[in-house]
Amino acid sequence: MIRKIKKYxxxxxxxxxxxxxxxxxxxxxxxxxxxxxxxxxxxVYFLKMLVVPxxxxxxxxxxLGLGSIEHLKRMGLKTIGLYILTTALAVVTAIIAMxxxxxxxxxxxxxxxxxxxxxxxPFSFESMLLSFIPTNIFNALSEGKMMQIIVFAILFGVAxxxxxxxxxxxxxxxxxxxxEAMLKMAEWVILLTPIGVFSLISYVIAEQGIDVVFGxxxxxxxxxxxxxxxxxxxxxxxxxxxxxxxxxxxxxxxREAPIMAFSTASSAATLPVSMRVVEEIGEVDxxxxxxxxxxxxxxxxxxxxxxxxxxxxxxxxxAGVALSLGxxxxxxxxxxxxxxxxxxxxxxxxxxxxxxxxxxxxxxxxMALIVAVDRILDMCRxxxxxxxxxxxxxxxxxxxxRR
Length: 403
Prior knowledge:
By secondary structure, the protein is an all-alpha fold.
C-alpha cells in the first residue's frame, strides 16, 4: 500500500508540473502549442479505448458478485439517490451564489446568433427514455453509447444471476479477466499522464487565449468559485455526514482522478483512472467501484448542473429579465431532473441549456456571449463531476461494509 501511495504521489507531482508548464508554454509559444495537439489527443484516445470494455465487464462482474437482485436494488437506489442529492446541492449553491453576487448587465441581443443550437434535434422525454434502450448492442458498443451499454450490462448481469453455477462461473471468470486486463492497460496509460496533460493544457490556452477569460472574468470566477466550494465544502460535508471517513484525507489520496478529469474534460476518459485509484488508494471494494463509478461517469453531473444554473441566470441578467423565486425553483428542479437523463444524448450540456432557456422564455442567442470560455469551464465542471463520483462511491462502499 505504501509503495502504491508513493507511486501515485509521484505521478500527481509530475501532473501538476505538466499543468503549470502547459499554461506557460501555451501563453509564450501559442503556435507550437497548437501544432502539438496530436500528443494530447492520442493520450485521450488511449484512455477512451479502455472505457467500453471496462464499463461492460466491470458492471457485469459487480452484479454477479452482488449475488441477488435485492442487493442490486439496494445499492442501485442508494447510488442514484446520492447522485441526485449531490446534484441538487450543487444547483442550490449555484443559485444562491448568483443571487448574492448578481453578475451580468443587460445587453442587447441584436446581431447575436448561436447557430449550433439550431442543429439540435427536437427534445422530448419520450425520445430521451427511448435513447436508453440499445436496439443493437454491437452498434452501442462500437459508438460508445454509455447509457445503452450500462442498461444492457445491468440486464445481462441480472439474467446471469439465474444461470446454473457452472455457467455463472465461466462468465464471471471471463469478464473478471477482461476488467483486470483493462485496468492493467490503464496503469500503462497513466504513466503518460504528465505528457498528455502538458499537451492538452497548452493547446487549450493557445486556442482560447487569456484575453477571452479576462473579458468574462466575473462570470468565470463565479463558476470556478461555486465549483471549488462544492468540491471542498459541500461534498466533503456529505461524505462526513454519511460516514466516519476523513473527507480531505480521502480526496487527497484519490486526487489524480479529478486532475485527470480537469485535463481531459471527459468523465468517460477519466473512468479507468478513477477505478484504479479508488480501489488501490481509496480502499473501495472492487464490486462497489465497478458498479457505482461507471454509472456516475454517465449520470453524475454536479459540475454541469452548477454551471448550467449560473449560465442560465447570467443570461437572464444579460437579457434584462428578472427571474422570480418560483422561476429559479423551476430552474433548479429542471436541471436536477434533466441531469440524469439527458446525459445519454449527444451534446448533453448544450441540450440542457437550450431546453431550460426555452422553458424560461429566455433568448438562446445570448449563449454566443459565453461560449468563448466554455472549453475552459468544461474542464472545471468535469473535474467536479468526477469528484462527486469519488465521494458517492466511498459513501456507498461504507454502507456496504456496514451491512
